[in-house]
Amino acid sequence: MTLSEELQWRGFVNQTTLKDISALDTQSWTFYHGFDASADSQAIGNLAAMMFDKVFMRHGHKAVLLAGGATSLIGDPGGKDTERPLQSVDVIEHNVQCAEVQLKKIFRGYDFVLVNNYDWYKDMQVLTFLRDIGKHFSMTPLVQRGGGISYTEFSYTLLQGYDFLRLHQDHGVNLQLAGSDQWGNSLSGVDLVRKVTGDEVHVLTVPLIINKATGKKFGKSEEGAVWLDPAKTTPTQFYQFWINIDDAGVEGYLKVYTELTKADVDEIITRHKAAPQERWAQKRLAQEATKIVHGDEEMTIAETVTEILTGKQPISAATEQVLSAVRKEINAAQASEDTPLTEVLVAAGLAKSNSEARQLISSNAVYVNGQVATGQQLQASDFQNGRLLLRKGKILKNTALIERA
């Protein structure tokens, strides 16, 4: 499969300045892709952009990854109706450092150049910028896309245009990869490079990835963002997000969020359609995406924790690593044999009071290791290797780990 064929199969082609997308297959490309630093972690929307980059890298093209230390200071509405709140230089610097750590982790095994546009803007004088860069821009298209934003964000397109020029001159960049919401800003770079150097460069944008269940994009500012930082979204939560994906979206996400081949994906989808209740496609998606972000070991732990919480594996088999991960996902408490069940429910945060706990027990809404609790106190046999799972109702998040005191 050629580069252009793979990009189209994975759904990575939106807008481009190339007359024919197959031109990607006949030229050597040095591309750049910018990642903003508006938050201290990238999210799964950014991960889609990274997977877009990886296709080019697998086909032997050179990558320059740009952390937007300067542009993140002023923000970019990116199709939003309101501006992002401005953040301090120190906050953005911290966010850039976090972004660099995540980029290096996601792109491990690949060669790439990492740059920060703050390096060339921090000492630039405004008069120099206006004289050397601003004179190349026409006000008409800028006003048309300005729409009620401040001059600060209005200027964003000039800065992004200069990024392209700078990277073209310093690194030979001849292609910008970007999200579809950056199409206008990217064209500013194409025009600026042509006016200053006479060289022809190009842009290819990727569609914004939409959560088919909610209709919202996978972004940092969207409610319920799924982060790449394990301190913000644990590996288990990350794994469970993918395993809970609906059937309508799973094939598309397999193409975007994994490096599986077309033959692999076709085989997975065929098996999935034969027995959708087994959720085989979601399981493979969760495995592959979690390995890319968190590594093989954390994926295995996340998978084991999920199987324990869903009753597919007994809590007795959990290693200390797995138990540590379980404690991050659910409440934990200690209890001894013969402890009244009401006390355990309150201590574990599953009931607010003893009276509420008694009501739950009497209505058969309390489960010990997946079985309806039949007594008023814990029994020695309930503990499996010194631990048990206590659940209120059918919802998995209302589960607590109880360890023998």
Structure in words:
- Helices cover 45% and strands 12% of the residues.
- It has 405 residues and is α/β, with parallel strands linked by helices.
- It folds into 3 domains: 3-206, Rossmann fold; 235-324, Orthogonal Bundle (Tyrosyl-Transfer RNA Synthetase), CATH 1.10.240.10; 330-404, Structural Genomics Hypothetical 15.5 Kd Protein In mrcA-pckA Intergenic Region, Chain A (Roll), CATH 3.10.290.10.
- The strands form 2 sheets. Strands 3-2-1-4-5 form a 5-stranded parallel β-sheet, with helices on both faces. Strands 6-10-9-7-8 form a 5-stranded mixed β-sheet, sandwiched between helices.
Note the main attributes of this structure.
single chain; 405 residues; alpha/beta; Rossmann fold; Tyrosyl-Transfer RNA Synthetase; 3 domains; 5-stranded parallel sheet; 5-stranded mixed sheet; 12% strand; elongated
- N-end to C-end Cα span: 59 Å
At the fold tier of CATH, the topology name of the largest domain is: Rossmann fold
Q: State which percent range the strand residues make up.
A: 5-15%
By CATH, the architecture of the largest domain is named: 3-Layer(aba) Sandwich
Helix content: 40-55%
Compact description:
This protein is an alpha/beta fold.
Write the layout of secondary structure elements.
Blueprint lengths: L2 H7 L20 E7 L7 H15 L3 E7 L2 H4 L14 H18 L6 E4 L1 H4 L4 H7 L6 H6 L6 H4 L1 H16 L3 E5 L3 H15 L4 E5 L28 H9 L3 H11 L4 H13 L5 H15 L1 H14 L10 H10 L1 E5 L5 H7 L6 H9 L3 E3 L2 E2 L14 E6 L6 E6 L1
Parallel strand pairs: 1-2, 1-4, 2-3, 4-5, 6-10
Antiparallel strand pairs: 7-8, 7-9, 9-10
